[in-house]
Structures are given as C-alpha cells and as structure tokens.
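Write out a sequence, fold above all:
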Amino acid sequence: MLRLAVLAAAILAAAPAAAAEDEGVEVWVNPGLFSYHLKDDRDYREDNYGLGVEVFITPRHGVVAGSLLNSNDERSKYIGYHWRPLQLTHQRWRFGAGLVFSLIDGYSDVRDGKTFPIVLPTASVEYGALGASLIFLPHPEHSSAIALQLRLRVW
C-alpha cells in the first residue's frame, strides 16, 4: 500500500505542470468494467463491478483509482496514471488513446495477491458527460482480456 501512496504523491506533484497544458479538470466515475477473455480455459468472472474514479488534469493526463471484483472473483484495488497522447475532437465528441500505468493487487495467481505493476493500452470515446473505454488487459500466463468500461463525468 505504501507503493500506491508514493505513486499517487508523484502524480499529484506533476499535476500543476500538466494543468497548464490544456483545459480544466474533469472527474469521471465508473462502475467497474465488463471483460471478455480471449482464451477461455477457466471460468472467469466477466462482470467486474466496483467503483472507480478518474481525475483528468488535462484530456491527456489523468489519475485513476478504484476497487472492483476481478476476473478471479477476488477484490482488487488499483491506482495509476492515465496518459492519452492521441486526441481527436469533433464537435462534442472526443476520442483518445494511450496507456494506463498502474499498480493493482488482489489476484491470488499473480504474486499471491500482492501489488504488481501493469501497463494497459486504452482507447476512449466521450460525448458530453458520457464516456466509454476499451482496455486491453494482458496476462502472459493465463487469459488476456478486452474490457469495456462505461464512465460518467461528474465534474
């Protein structure tokens, strides 16, 4: 947990420089995600409910944190930095792509449930206060997954 706190402090320390880059802060919430496992040799949970918060200092730089029931039906907590360097806007639509650099725990088959780092490629679309993200969840030993995360902007 100390690693999670150090990561959060480092991200927040960089926030003033990122905030000067673009428009105002946006806060999004999500109810977890829905996953589809590419190699379905195990009985994975694919409705990964939870609560997540995303704070974007700019459209390209954000902090994410939350908790959800993972695909092993275990509780996971995560925190990370969401970097979306690719941006395209058209009227009220915004499209983005990038990476989430995250620390996550709660997978008994990875480091006995202890915290581990992960990099997640993402693509997102937003229209007003509604958003959705496609996330690739790599797993070298078991089944990688593609996840859909629905989001609601609350600020």
